[in-house]
Every structure is written in C-alpha cells, then in structure tokens.
Amino acid sequence: MPGCDSAAAVVRYPNDMPDESFDHPGRAVARLARQVELALARVDLTLPQYRVVILLGEGQEAASALAEKLAVSRPSVTGVVDGLVARGLVERHHDRDDRRRVGHELTAEGRRLLECADAEIERRLGEIATYGPATVAAAFEGLRPWREALDAYRSARRAARASGAEVTH
Question: What is the pTM of this model?
Fold first, then answer.
C-alpha cells in the first residue's frame, strides 16, 4: 500500500499462528467470514441461508433475481430456499399474471430470525473488535466504505447488463 511501511503492517498473533501481512486483505476477510459463520450457527443458519434471508428481508424476490443478486446459479438458490421453506422461514407465491413466476418472501418467523442473526453477528464481531485498537463503533463504521463500494459495484454491473455491455467482472 502506498505510504505504508511493510514492517509496520504485520499483525502478530499470540498463539503461535504465523504473522499475517496486510498485503493480502482477503485473508482477513476470510477470517471475518468464519466469525460470521460461527455467529450464524448459534441461530441455526448457514452463510448462504443468511444471504438469501437478507435479500428477502428487503422484499419479495423471484429465484432468478435472488441468484443474480447473490452471484450464484439458480439451482443453488433453489436448494437454499427449499431448506428455508421447509423450516417455515420463507414462503413461495405464484405470480397472479404469470403462474410460472414464483416469488419468495420471508415469513414472520423468517423476519424474527433475521433480526436474531443480525444481533448475534453484531455481538460476536463487537466482542472481537474490543481487542483491537479502535472502538467497536469505529470498527463497524470502517465497514461503511465497503458497503458503499459493493452497492455501487452492483449498480454498475446492473447498468452494464441493461445496456447490453459485456460484464467481465
């Protein structure tokens, strides 16, 4: 990174784990993702299920739209949704105008579980953040630029697809 001294950009772990340099941010993100998975396990959700529930928390979606937003195949989404339907967390609805089109939405229980999952993730990450140099609030605020970048990236990809441009990444 420009302006960063590589010797100062090393995280040292007390448990004989090898040092982790900031040259590979994906490694830190992967470790955070594991912490999210552990938090979700406490509320009996997997990370793919949580991702679907998040999107359905924003409103009803068709499987094809879910697959697009999650950047996975439609059969992958169907498998995840099937499990959520079986647990009573998601309902399927046929479109009035086109019976072939099926929408998905969260049930009241699904909404409750989403709230519990969000709270458990915030609790776990907040606990971990207390061991860092910044406040918990500052650690969470540090995620804001990533959320904004992800939203802008998704919008740009949608716009490119809508205009017929090839989306390469």
Answer: 0.78
